[in-house]
Design a protein that fits this description.
The protein has a single domain (2-239), classed as Aldolase class I (TIM Barrel). The chain is built from eleven helices and eight strands. The chain has helices at residues 8-17, 24-34, 52-61, 74-83, 110-123, 135-143, 154-158, 162-181, 198-201, 213-222, 224-239, and strands at residues 2-6, 38-42, 66-70, 87-90, 126-131, 148-152, 185-189, 208-211. Helix 10 (213-222) crosses helix 11 (224-239). It is globular. The two termini are 15 Å apart.
Length: 243
């Protein structure tokens, strides 16, 4: 399973004091050395953490794969065409939200997704859409030119009731199965920790995880290199439970 580390919150810490450190680019290099298969960064419209210059430097420094998360706006489409990351993941975005609150409304964003798909086809960039695990969004994602979907795992991660969590995990499993049937690559992310990612890793159709906040939180106590390695170990343990 591919493991992409989101380094947004290294920039959050930097921006809290207006210092040049900690540097998200340096963090990305540590993650790669520790075994990450790719680096994810979300360039928000309000630039609350990652900045344009961070992405520009990441583009030159990352040796694995750069996954640029962004809203489907004309500004971001133009920026991504200039930077040309290996992957673009379109996500919903509201300025008042603390973090991404759910999957992209693929139908509502149809025209912008089609525009992004044309850019990606010209530049040979993989287009991924961050979506809920339901038939409507999955089918539309395929129709509009996405090569991959990233299933929103927040609802699964945030619920405490065991029965409800099992129900939401089953929804993810069915969504992953359907996405694969449609010919889409399947990733997953949001809210995943070392403690809760195992059952998601056991879903055989899921081939990539994007994890950020929990990696950086663990790094506060154990260092970034070890945090990435511990996550990698937890992912591999989950994959071994596939049936």
């Amino acid at each position: 399973m591919r493991f992409h580390v989101n380094i947004d919150h290294v920039a959050t810490l930097r921006n809290a004091r207006g210092t040049p450190y900690p540097d998200p680019v340096e963090a990305a290099l540590i993650c790669e050395k520790a075994g990450a298969d790719g680096i994810t960064a979300h360039l928000r419209e309000d630039r609350r953490h990652i900045r344009d210059s961070d992405i520009e430097r990441l583009r030159g420094a990352v040796r694995t794969l750069l996954n640029l998360e962004m809203a489907a706006t004309d500004e971001m489409i133009a920026f991504s065409e200039r930077i040309r990351p290996e992957v673009i993941t379109l996500v919903p975005e509201r300025r008042e939200e603390r973090t991404t609150e759910g999957g992209l409304d693929v139908g509502a964003a149809r025209s912008q997704i089609e525009k992004m798909a044309r850019v990606c086809a010209r530049a040979k960039i993989k287009l991924s859409l961050f979506v809920e695990a339901d038939e409507t969004h999955l089918s539309l994602s395929r129709e509009l030119g996405a090569q991959q979907v990233e299933l929103h795992t927040g609802d699964y991660c945030n619920v405490l009731d065991a029965a409800e969590r099992a129900s939401r995990l089953e929804r993810l499993r069915r969504g992953a199965e359907r996405a694969r049937e449609l010919g889409l690559e399947v990733a997953a992310g949001h809210g995943l920790t070392r403690e809760n990612l195992g059952p998601v890793c056991a879903i055989s159709e899921i081939e990539e995880l994007n994890i950020g906040h929990a990696v950086i939180a663990d790094a506060v106590f154990m260092g970034l290199d070890r945090a990435v390695r511990e996550f990698r170990a937890a992912i591999e343990a989950g994959v071994r439970k596939r049936t």
